[in-house]
Design a protein that fits this description.
single chain, alpha+beta, Jelly Rolls, 3 domains, 5-stranded antiparallel β-sheet, 24 strands, 14% helix, globular
Length: 444
C-alpha cells in the first residue's frame, strides 16, 4: 500500500511540474509586449496589432514563419558584436519559448486572456502622454510624379519659459510616403517673429543637397534685426524603424522659450498617386535640468576622384567605402546611426585607441534599407582622446542584389547626397564630452 501511495504522490508531483512548465499566453505576454506591441498595435507602425490573444493566435503560423526566419522583430545589428539598450531582437531563450508555445498549439492557459493594450498617443511608441506636440501647420501634398520629393519645413513654437527635454519622438503622418527626416531645434533672437513667413520650401535641381544656413534662415525670417543668427540646440533624425530618442536624468537638451523645429531634410518616397502627410513631434519634458547637452556629429567618406564624382560601377558586387576620424578629446557615446541606401550590404564601425585597443561599436551583417536605427548603447561608451574611429561599408550593385532599384544595374553616383540616382555612406553619433564615471551610466 505504501508503494502505491508513494507512486501516486510522485505521479502527482510530475503532473504538477508539467503544468508549471506548460507555456501559455500569460507567460508569453511580457515578451510580446516588450518586443512587438510598440509597433504592432492600433495606429502603430506595423500593419496589424498583437495586443491580445485573439490577434496573436489568428496569425500564429505567420508569426512562427517570420520569427523562424529572423524577419521579425526587425533588428539588423549583430548583438554578439555589441548589444544595445533599445534592442528589438529576441534572445535565444525568448525565441525558443515563443516557437515552443506556437508549436504546442498556442494555449490560452487557465488565466482569462487579457489585453496587452496600454495608453498610446496616435502613432507613438511611448506609453505616456507627451508634454508638447509640434505638428506641421497643414498637410503637405506629395505630388503624383513618382519621384523623390524633398522639402525643408519650419514648425515654430513659443513656450512660457526654457524647458528641459528628456525624450523626443518623430511621428510620420503618412507612413507610406515619409522616407526620413533630419531635424534641428533652433533658438532665435527675441525680436524674431517665428510665426511669420513661409512654412516650407521644396528643393529643386539647384538647391538639392545644398543646405545653407544663410539661405534657409533668411527664407524663414529667422535672423534677428541686428543680424543675430539662430543657434542650434539639438540635432537628430528619423528613419524607418528608429526608436524614440530618450536620455537619462540630467542629460538631454534645453528647449528655448522661442524657436523653431526645422526639418532641414524631409524626404518623401515616390508615389504614383497624390498623397497627404501631416507629421508631428511628441516632446517629453524632464523634471530635472539637463546639465549636460547632447552633441551631434555626422561623418562621411572623402571623394578621391579628380572630377569630384565617385561611381559604384554596374555589376560591382563588392564596392567599399571607408570613414576614418581621429578624436582629439575624450567623449562619451550614447547613440550610433549607420546609413546607406539600397545598394548597401554590410556596415561596421569601431574605434582603435592610441594603445591599439579596439572598441567595437556596431556591425550590420546584412544591411536592410527599410529598417534603420539610432542604436543606443547599454551604457555610455568612452572613446579616449587620440582614438581613431573606423567605419567600413560594402555595396552590391549587381543583379543579385534584390534591393537594387535598377534592372539591369547601372553606374550609380556615390556620395552625392539626396539625388534620386545616388548612393551614400554616413555615420552619425550622439555624444557628450566625457566625465568620470560615464561608463557606468545606463541608458534607458
Amino acid at each position: 500500500m505504501r508503494k502505491i501511495v508513494l507512486a501516486i504522490y510522485i505521479g502527482l508531483n510530475i503532473s504538477g511540474l508539467a503544468q508549471q512548465k506548460e507555456l501559455n499566453y500569460a507567460k508569453l505576454k511580457p515578451i510580446i509586449e516588450k518586443k512587438c506591441v510598440s509597433c504592432h498595435r492600433e495606429n502603430g507602425y506595423a500593419p496589424f496589432g498583437l495586443e491580445n490573444y485573439n490577434e496573436i493566435v489568428k496569425r500564429k503560423d505567420f508569426i512562427k514563419y517570420v520569427i523562424t526566419n529572423d524577419y521579425m522583430p526587425p533588428w539588423r545589428a549583430n548583438n554578439n558584436y555589441r548589444h544595445f539598450a533599445n534592442s528589438k531582437a529576441l534572445s535565444k531563450e525568448e525565441k525558443s519559448l515563443i516557437l515552443q508555445w506556437l508549436n504546442e498549439g498556442a494555449r490560452i492557459g487557465p488565466e482569462k486572456p487579457t489585453s496587452n493594450k496600454k495608453w498610446y498617443n496616435e502613432g507613438s511608441q511611448v506609453n505616456q502622454k507627451p508634454d508638447l506636440i509640434l505638428s506641421m501647420k497643414a498637410p503637405f501634398t506629395v505630388p503624383a510624379i513618382n519621384q523623390n520629393v524633398y522639402i525643408c519645413y519650419k514648425i515654430p513654437f513659443e513656450l512660457k519659459h526654457d524647458t528641459f527635454i528628456k525624450a523626443i519622438e518623430f511621428v510620420p503622418g503618412n507612413k507610406s510616403v515619409v522616407h526620413h527626416a533630419s531635424y534641428q531645434i533652433i533658438e532665435v533672437a527675441d525680436d524674431v517673429d517665428v510665426f511669420s513667413g513661409p512654412d516650407f520650401f521644396q528643393y529643386d535641381a539647384d538647391t538639392l543637397n545644398r543646405v545653407k544656413d544663410d539661405h534657409d534662415y533668411k527664407y524663414f525670417n529667422l535672423i534677428g534685426k541686428n543680424g543675430k543668427m539662430p543657434k542650434e540646440v539639438y540635432h537628430n533624425g528619423w528613419l524607418p524603424g528608429t526608436s524614440v530618442q530618450t536620455y537619462p536624468s540630467g542629460i538631454g537638451f534645453k528647449m528655448p522659450k522661442k524657436g523653431v523645429l526645422l526639418i532641414r531634410n524631409f524626404h518623401y518616397s515616390p508615389t504614383p498617386i497624390e498623397q497627404q502627410d501631416l507629421s508631428k513631434f511628441y516632446i517629453f519634458f524632464s523634471s530635472k535640468p539637463a546639465i549636460r547637452n547632447i552633441g551631434f556629429a555626422a561623418f562621411k567618406p572623402n571623394n578621391p576622384t579628380k572630377d569630384g564624382k565617385w561611381y559604384i560601377k554596374a555589376n560591382d558586387s563588392n564596392f567599399a567605402a571607408h570613414i576614418n576620424v581621429k578624436f582629439h578629446n575624450d567623449v562619451s557615446l550614447l547613440n550610433i546611426n549607420p546609413h546607406m541606401h539600397k545598394l548597401g550590404k554590410y556596415f561596421k564601425a569601431y574605434a582603435v585607441t592610441s594603445k591599439n585597443d579596439t572598441i567595437p561599436l556596431v556591425e550590420i551583417p546584412k544591411w536592410d534599407f527599410n529598417w534603420q536605427e539610432f542604436y543606443r548603447f547599454e551604457k555610455m561608451i568612452k572613446i579616449p582622446a587620440g582614438s581613431v574611429l573606423h567605419a567600413e561599408a560594402l555595396y552590391d550593385n549587381s543583379a543579385k542584389n534584390a534591393a537594387n532599384p535598377y534592372s539591369p544595374p547601372k553606374d550609380v553616383l556615390f556620395e552625392w547626397g539626396m539625388n534620386d540616382d545616388s548612393e551614400m555612406m554616413r555615420l552619425v553619433l550622439l555624444f557628450l564630452p566625457y566625465e568620470m564615471g560615464d561608463e557606468k551610466i545606463a541608458l534607458p
